[in-house]
Amino acid sequence: MSVSAYITNIARGSLHDGPGVRTVVYFKGCGLSCKWCHNPETLSAQKQILYIKSKCIHCGKCVELCPECHKIQGSDMLFLRENCTACGKCSDACPSLALSLCGEEKTVTELFEEIKKDQHYYTASGGGVTFSGGECLLHSQFVKEIAKMCKDKDIHTTVESAFFVPWKNVEEVLPFTDLFFADLKIPDSEKHRKFTGQDNKLIIENITKLSNIHSNIILRIPVIPGVNDSDDDIDAFAQIIKTFGKGIKEIELLKYNNLAESKYDIAGKEYTGFAEKTQTNEEMQKRCSAFKEKCSKNCYFV
Amino acid sequence: MFEVLKYIHENIEKNIELSDIANKFGYSKWHFCSKFHNYTGKSFVKYVRHYRLQLAALDILSGKKSIDVALNYGYETLGGFNKAFLAEFGCLPREYKKHVKDTQLYYERRKITMYPLTDRCETLRRLVVGTNDYEDYYCMQHKVYSYLGMAHAAKNNLSNTEIISSGIVNVLNNFKPVIIPGELTVGFNFPDSKYKETFAPDNTEENRRLAKLNGISDNDIDTYFKYVEEKPQLLKKIFPEITKEEQYSNSEWAAIGRCIDANHSVLNYEKVLKLGFRGLLDEITKYENKNGTNSIYSSMKSICVAACEMGKKYAEEAKKIKASGNERYLKDDLDYIIAACENVPENPAASFREAVQSLWFAHIINTWEDSINANSLGRLDQILYPYYKADIDKGLLTKEEAFEIICCLWIKLYRNYDVQQSCVGGTSTDGSSQVNELSYMMLDATEQLDFIRCMSVRYSENTEKEFIKRALEVVGHVQKGVPFFFNDDVMIPALTSKGISIEDAHDYTQIGCVETVIPGKSNPHAVTGETNLLKAIEYVLCNGNSMMHPDFKTGVETGELDKLDTYNKFYDAVKKQISHILDLTCSGVKKHTECSVINSPRPYKSLLTEGCIETGRDFNDAGAKYDYYQIMLGGIPNLADSLEVIREFVYKQKKYSLEEIKEILVNDYPDESVRLEFINKAAKFGNDIESVDSIAVDIVNAACDYLEELSEKYGLSFHAQPFTFLWMVDHGRESAASPDGRRKGEIIAYSVSPMQGRDFNGLTSLLNSIAKLPTKRTPGTTSAIVEVDPKLFTDRNIPLLADILLASSEKGLENVQFNTIDADTLIDAQKYPEKYNNLAVRVSGFSQKFNLLSPELQNHIIGRTKHSCL
What we know:
heterodimer; A: TIM Barrel; nine-stranded mixed β-sheet; two-stranded antiparallel ribbon; B: Arc Repressor Mutant, subunit A; 55% helix; globular
């Protein structure tokens, strides 16, 4: 029997997230809840209905089908999430795509059909597939199966993970993963708990282990203004990175943006990110140099 | 096992034996192997080799010698190491290094080859981009002298061929040579953009002033305007009889059969470079003696005789300027012009400089025959290379000088808004790439001058990737959608399938937008037949009548709707309508072609097209070696999307009946939720979704089949061309609402690009969908414009974009053009046009200044999905 998982999105033709041209698969569910999360719709492990108010044309189809969740109030359409069981009837009927079901259940075979469609682009560019999320390693059995199929067809595989998962999940996908993106968010454990809901002990433990037995890991650090972007933070990051094994090839700093804000409303969450300040390219460049010097690793920002 | 891997990684440089390590961790050898394989997915030996080679590759890149690296990682011989390396990376260590270095070099290379614009070119460029006065000066000469020449010939009751050649000869004999300070290549084709609408400018004070300013004598001006007022019939013309049905289908832009018999050509200018007009005269005489004289030969001859004097007029002018001591001109420039123009175009070109000058003269005369518009130049890098190479080898020319000369030619060529195409790159019959130094220089000139809007690149899987990257870089830097890309691996088989020899097919190039031509050997009748296949839906739903114009019976009867009770029956009915639309178009083409033989002789084009001199037949009288007609297939994406909606909602879900669909469309979607349902709840072309893509494929195949039958029926060779030009606006305006969610009158999709805004699955999906189309059957080119976020063209991404282009070409992509302006900029440009005078976008096969487009077209372009590859 084929395993299945909830997938929120399959982005084809991506030029980031690994070498070459890539298909990025976003899994649903994550053990962390970072306050700046860019994919809030992937946080919950359950299916859910997303509602884009601006697309609604007030046709009332959803009200007819499901009066428990959808109500017309004056010129407004209300979506009562607390009653929603994500049955998908309303999103099926919604003509304008204002309502959509996030988290399509896909089997390994179904997903592979989709991945295969761009195989000639992978071959030409040295690209492949990237498993992201959410936390893809919460679905390690699924990722293992699909990654194995990819490797059978010589498709490059990348796992992007925050590593807040049991070590055995990592071990499971290890043989079929060419490249890991390991997210490292905040060096201080307490602060980590404050901003992501969990401390970083397990994460650091996992990355340490992995970096001793896998040769192709890129550390990804999201630079969040006021959270982990001070000089002291860089020092603290460097302290941790030094304890990692040889497998860490380079460090990628992610420049902060607040583009995700609109996605929060759609997913029925409150945006708690940091709207005001973003870094300039010069600042990022300076930070890269500091990382390079302190960790003796190549470092760049995107 | 974790500890095992850790140990291996720490001791990788040592010699690790399987039995030792198994022992060390307390496993039997067999048990160890099986556990290791389970954990890592590889055998122990493979795993160690893989990891070692990864590390070795890094060492190689850092510059260590192969032998040292080999020894360091436990290889006893270099041979063994190379073999292992080859197995792992598919190449030898030094090739690996070269490959990586190549990528780095490619960025450095630009600094070497991209010469800066010289002061001369910068000045000339500014003159072109910045002012209109430049045009005022020269616009009247061609008009007046050509008209006078023709009128005189008409009075003497000469044949149409002679009337046209008399016009050309009269311009050649009377035009005033003008040399602009600083220019190296001289000659103007007297752009007539100001007077495009009227063949003859009115007799106004302003026009008289301009004519005088142009140095035309008072006597000539008077005679000219006297003629213009009399409006004499110059050419003897015949007109086809048009049936009511044809009239209707023309007026609703469904099936337009005409014959484009003017200003779409690429001639054999190479012949002028090789023989000179003097040599051409000899050739004409040879065939005249053989075939007997006729008015075509005599017309060709009189043009050659007049053309021989063309250069000398400029040489005289240059001498005059030199004698006057005018300080605005450099003596060296004048000497240069005198030397070249005393020789060409009368005699063979003896140098690169002369070749460029001669080619430009030969082209000017072509534009005097039937205006500039889409008369194009073809494969300039190939034509000019032998002259360039010879001069460089002899030390007569430096690369910097060559670049400057190309820039000067480019400034001449691209100063108008017309679509004179040039093409670089290509593949020879043995499969090797024909990219040469000039190909790069021409791309450099295009980037540096930054106002060129019409240039293309031919490539194949054998083309140097560096060249493709360079071309993409120009797309990213210039941001005007140039160059556009043609895939030889598809174009050439498409051409040979139409009976074009393999050698000639390898020489193809483009006219104007994306019209395929065999230079100097063909009359392609570009954009001759024009169809809107989306109309088929209207005709089926209204049983042969137009839905847009209910009193037009432009389709065929395909039965009452209740009889169409399966999707296949419906689809067959649609195909019957397609066949009918194409038949109407082709019969119209046939009728107009018969008139064009009489009405539109082209003596100059005949002179420079293989087949015409040899047979004594005119270019427009099937004289060319290849005579074919391009039939445009419009509305394919909308038709495929519409059929998918009908299949899904009428036949599969049975949610709507055909009558209900008809009702909805006749009333132009009274319920918006139904329209959105049709858009959002059925698959759309352009997203790599098989169900709907295969409909598009089938439609094109069916159309190609019908065109083959019609070629038999009418005795003309019809080439399928899934291309709309910018007439998607008119097709849309004349179409009722369609089941794909398109409203009545809304613009249809451009060519085979998806309906604007309906592709949302990323760049690779879009290209996959387009590449599925049977492109090897459409030598008229299956054209697509892809909207790409300009931010995508970074140094990091350009190699990846090249990979994407090549991979989709392998799948069958025929032609692609990139638009790289983001929607915000375009919206801003709509608001503040004055800020964006040099902003150009791809409209349809050509780029146009955004400010010159109608608001409808502007909105259409803004509405296209911008692919950002995030």
